[in-house]
Amino acid sequence: MSWASRFRLLQYTKASLWIVPLLGLVLGVLLAQWAVSVDAADWLPAGWRYSASTAGGVLTAIVGAMIALLGFVVTIGVLVVQQATGTLSPRYMRLWYRDRLQKAVLATFTGTFSFSFALLRSIESDSVPDLGVTMAGAAVSVSLLLLLVYLNRFTHNLRPVAIAGLVARMGERVLVRGEAAVLGAAPRAGGPVPPPEGAGPVAYVRSEHGGVIQAFHTGRLTALAARHDCLLVVTRLVGDYVPPGSVVVEVHGGTPAPDPRRVTGLIAFGSERTIEQDPAFALRVLVDIAVRALSPAVNDPTTAVQVLNEIEAFLHTVGRTGLRDRYVLGDRHGTPRLVVRGRDWEDYLQLAVTEIREYGTPSLQICRRLGALLETLLGAVPAASRPAVDTELALLRESVDREYTDPARRTLARTPDPQGIGARRRPARPVGSGVVDREDVRGEGGGVGRG
């Protein structure tokens, strides 16, 4: 099995909602057999003894309760899917399916069910699995506790602002980790220089079935290029859709050139993007949530402003990272072996603000919040990144001028406000200027003082 096949299998396992519960089901049967064998040793205290009728009634009730709780959790899952696809983003569902707590709840329920059912079959008039019945009661207690934690978590975490914070943190971790890995594999200074872009390769590697590039194994691609003494140039970004038969890798040099199937076996294709090597996918989800909030059907610009808070934090992380549109990776000797494409600062900035500006210009909140976001970035990013921010500020002003023909409303929309409305930025007054506003004079009770 190639690395790409294993990657796709791992993605399926992470998103699956039946594999972990199935393991819980099997584990429950095995634990029941162990409990029955331990009961045969006849060492339990007298307080843990049950009659056959009592044990049968308790286990029957547990079996029915677990089935009911499983149906309840499945119902919640269906409601989450409906809410997420209707008011958030369908792309978020790919991340929600991976939630470990949800899988733990389902596995505990199925395990308790199989454990109790297996014990129920072993009850005889003169043989009762006393330890197993006690363990089944403890498993029910754990199941109820997990259910309460599950309900509490999804009641609070299904709010758009909570999901935006979760997605933004995931994207930031992927961005920082990926950037460190790529820079750590850079070739040594003064070594051979890779061919410039556009130089003629000696061979092309094409995709067989096509799809979205989900990830590629940079370490193995580098090692493969070193074995064949060549340079591999990946022509596509992670997250790009590649039609069948399109070029994905160019081979420069090599005697002989590597087998195309071995190269494509290190590039994972799928039906949609994943976040493992694609931090821009997290930003895509954030923008989708903000755009949904700005749609006429929802009309909730305050939620879009809250999502912009997370987008701004994400952009600050991007701005502190030395992004480039082309990365060169070397082997252990420092020789360039792999060239991969990357997203630079302008790519991330356009993805973050373009659609929100286009859909949110009719909202004063969005115009003012976007203005504050861009002006803050001007003072936070390196000088080389500021022209892109200036361009976005100019586009925002042009959109505002087209939307608001009244001078007073236009001035209001062009005023930066980090909260959208209600916290406009005022010019700082020099200390000791002697200028005092009424709101600067406060009484002891917090009201405006009377001079």
Helicity range: 55-70%
Span between termini: 82 Å
Number of helices: 15
Strand content: 5-15%
H/E element sequence: HHHHHHHEEHEEEHEHHEEHHHH
Strand order of the largest sheet: 1-5-3-8-7
Describe the structure concisely.
This protein is 57% helix and 9% strand. With 451 residues, the protein is an alpha+beta fold.
Note down, in words, how this protein is organized.
It is a single chain. With 451 residues, the protein is an alpha+beta fold. Helices cover 57% and strands 9% of the residues. The protein contains 15 helices and eight strands. A five-stranded mixed beta sheet has the order 1-5-3-8-7. Strands 4-2-6 form a three-stranded antiparallel beta sheet. The longest helix has 36 residues, at 52-87. It is flat, with a radius of gyration of 30 Å.
List keywords for this structure.
451 residues, alpha+beta, five-stranded mixed β-sheet, three-stranded antiparallel β-sheet, 15 helices, 57% helix, flat, disordered C terminus
